[in-house]
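Notes from hallway chat w/ T.B., transcribed later so I don't forget. T.B. wanted the structure written out for a chain they're using in a teaching module, and asked if we could keep both sequence and structure tokens in one place. Agreed to drop them here.
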Amino acid sequence: MRGSWKIRIFIGLAIAAFTLLKYCNSKEVNPYTGREQAIALDPKEEIEMGLASRDQMAQQHGGLHPDNGAQDMVDRVGEKLVNNSLAKESPYRYEFHLLLDDQTINAFALPGGQIFITAALYSKLENEDQLAGVLGHEIGHVLGRHSSERIAEAGLWQGLSQAGSVGADMGGLIAGIGQNKLLTNGRGDELESDDLGIKFMIDAGYDPYQMIGVMEILKAAAGPNRVPEHKSTHPDPENRIDQIKASIEKYSR
């Protein structure tokens, strides 16, 4: 019996060591943010993943919006942000999509440059600068390589959970720790994208203070019963406003 436990512990430690080594070997410095991060996909794979998921994601939100004038506005603002930022130097293929969904107030990005905004959010925006804030934030997710980073991190915690299950019946505990860590890092992704988005707005000639108006829109949409920050992938809009003000001061010097 004791020998069986020793074998299990040895196997668990071997799995953990392999998982950690793989994770550490995947780290590199992001040339657009200067931050070291673990990466699961190279840029070509990110682009391919985004293109493969593009049509499906659009259909989940009712398809593309038929208003060509509104779509032209989204394209124009998105391209202006890209052409006046580090995004222009990246290998990513940026496409901006206005979705028909008039119920879900949201915008999101797929790996590699596919960026979406719903009609529900677009209709709430008061001016072009606020649209630039939304799209700049999503460009920040692409350049921050957040999807690739979260895939790498999920693989780390999956491997450690497996090691814990084999070695000490602690897989559930480790998985829970990993889930909390992923939520925390997801909130960090949002703040980094806010920071990058503010820089992109300033570089493209937009008023960065309009991003605060976007946060007010999101706050109103969430209502008084919004999910507590520690249970959400997104920071509370109030906390994001404080960070946005700090970014404006930093990039306006």
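Follow-up for T.B.: Residues 181-185 have pLDDT under 50 and may be disordered. Might be a good example for the class.
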